[in-house]
């Protein structure tokens, strides 16, 4: 019988850590279920697991869903293609507010990042609770957003990043050529908690479908400013071997780039919702809708 998880909240709305966690505990389905329950409740969950191997990282990922091979980051290869590498020395960075790959029809639901090399100072990651941000909107704004959808487009930020030399890899050029964009509702209902969350980010969202451009820009500017309130924020200062798991259905995040010229390297896995007949039908419906615009 595994010992029960001890979860300590790290903020009133978002963020918690698992205390005295032994890696052996994570082999038990019961512990993984408790971890998942803590994740959906707290939205971002810190584990202190310095001895975790890529194989153990992958096995936790498999508990949450179908592990993905990332669209543009490199990976560990040789059986570990689903462990992505985000290494500042390879020219990769994630210093923008985003939901992971929201330009896909069915973006990853959960991501987990394990700290491998850290700069002497800085390199914190921040998460915003988009459920708390939604709750804090006025009833009028909630009514206004009801039924609206917005376009999530990978090309706009990537093309700008390439033009300004922020990223330089050929793999970013290739991914821009794939022209990935998708229409998503601006408010999504979490399938486990039933809570509503805003589904917009300043990085990937280009415009609100069907609105005049000035109105779309003004509404998005308001929503982005609204979400950036510190009361919705959780910031983690990494220690080597920490893992943070976050729920992409409830949060946006930003890895602060304030540590140049030092190195920061993360192992990362993200997972898609397991495909049921219902999700396949929904994906097909959304894909059809996306190609008609
Ligand atoms: O490196 C981090 O802390 C977060 C990385 C990130 O933004 C991502 O994996 O999408």
Low-confidence stretches: 284-293
The number of helical runs is 8
CATH H-level superfamily title: Clavaminate synthase-like
Bound molecules: 2-oxoglutaric acid
Proportion of helical residues:
25-40%
Largest sheet: 8 strands, mixed
The span between the termini is 54 Å
Mean pLDDT: 92
* CATH topology assignment: Double-stranded beta-helix
Q: Which CATH-level-2 architecture?
A: 4-Layer Sandwich
Q: Which radius of gyration do the C-alpha atoms yield?
A: 19 Å
Number of strands: 16
The class by helix and strand makeup works out as: alpha+beta
| CATH class membership | Alpha Beta
Share of β-strand residues: 25-35%
Order of secondary-structure elements: EEHEHEEEEHHEHHEEEEHEEEEH
Total domain count? 1
Shape verdict: globular
Structure overview:
- 29% of the residues lie in helices and 26% in strands.
- 35% of the residues are buried.
- It is globular, with a radius of gyration of 19 Å.
- Helix 5 packs antiparallel against helix 6 (170-177).
- Residues 284-293 have low confidence and may be disordered.
- The chain is built from 8 helices and 16 strands.
- A hairpin with a 6-residue loop joins strand 1 (6-9) and strand 2.
- The strands form 4 sheets. Strands 1, 2, 3, 4, 5, 6, 14 and 16 form an 8-stranded mixed beta sheet that branches. It has a 3-stranded antiparallel beta sheet with strand order 13-7-15.
- The protein has one domain: 4-Layer Sandwich (Double-stranded beta-helix).
- It has 293 residues and is an alpha+beta fold.
């Amino acid at each position: 019988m595994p010992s029960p998880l001890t979860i300590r909240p790290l903020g009133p709305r978002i963020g918690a850590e698992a205390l005295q966690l032994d890696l052996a505990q994570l082999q038990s389905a019961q512990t993984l279920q408790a971890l998942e329950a803590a994740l959906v409740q707290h939205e971002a969950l810190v584990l202190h697991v310095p001895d975790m191997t890529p194989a153990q990282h992958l096995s936790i990922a498999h508990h949450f869903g179908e592990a993905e091979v990332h669209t543009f980051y490199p990976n560990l290869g040789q059986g570990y293609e689903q462990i992505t590498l985000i290494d500042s020395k390879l020219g990769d960075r994630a210093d923008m507010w985003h939901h992971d790959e929201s330009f896909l029809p069915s973006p990853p639901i959960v991501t987990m990042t394990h700290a491998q090399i850290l700069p002497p100072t800085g390199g914190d990651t921040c998460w915003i609770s988009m459920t708390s941000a939604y709750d804090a909107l006025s009833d009028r704004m909630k009514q206004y957003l009801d039924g609206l959808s917005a376009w999530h487009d990978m090309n706009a930020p990537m093309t700008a990043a390439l033009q300004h030399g922020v990223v330089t890899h050929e793999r970013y050029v290739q991914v821009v050529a794939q022209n990935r964009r998708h229409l998503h509702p601006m408010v999504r209902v979490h399938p486990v908690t039933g809570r509503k969350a805003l589904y917009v980010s300043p990085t990937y969202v280009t415009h609100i479908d069907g609105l005049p451009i000035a109105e779309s820009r003004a509404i998005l500017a308001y929503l982005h400013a609204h979400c950036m309130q510190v009361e919705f924020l959780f910031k983690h200062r990494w220690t080597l071997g920490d893992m943070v798991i976050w729920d992409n259905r409830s949060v946006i995040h930003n890895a602060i780039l304030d540590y140049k010229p030092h190195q920061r390297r993360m192992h990362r896995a993200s997972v898609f919702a397991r495909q049921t007949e219902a999700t396949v039908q929904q994906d097909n419906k959304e894909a059809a809708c996306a190609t008609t615009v």
